[in-house]
Amino acid sequence: MTKWSPNSWREKPIKQVPAYPDLAALKATEAQLATFPPLVFAGEARKLKKQLAAVAAGEAFLLQGGDCAESFAEHGADNIRDFFRVFLQMSVVLTFAGAQPVVKVGRVAGQFAKPRSSDNETKG
Length: 124
Fold this sequence. Notes:
Blueprint: H1 23-34, H2 42-56, E1 61-66, H3 77-98, E2 102-107
Parallel strand pairs: 1-2
């Protein structure tokens, strides 16, 4: 088994990634992103792993939701707030109806991280 490190992904073959004509700008962007806190903390990932084990054992229910495809124009604080409001309402209903914990996994802005089959997209 290969040992994991924060940069081990760079050793894997890249099948769907855009070509970056300005490698200096790419490196500067990566350096800036590296200074930000993580989107998900390790403890949260460990907690989710335990919760999903409970789902697999039939001790909890998994509620997974979110948009399949968002656009930058439609995506913003109001949309995220509305999604969480409905998602949490669904969770409350399922908790009472199922009489067991509900593990909530939301997809927000997932469209922006999907791999592309083409470097460019032309609309219109």
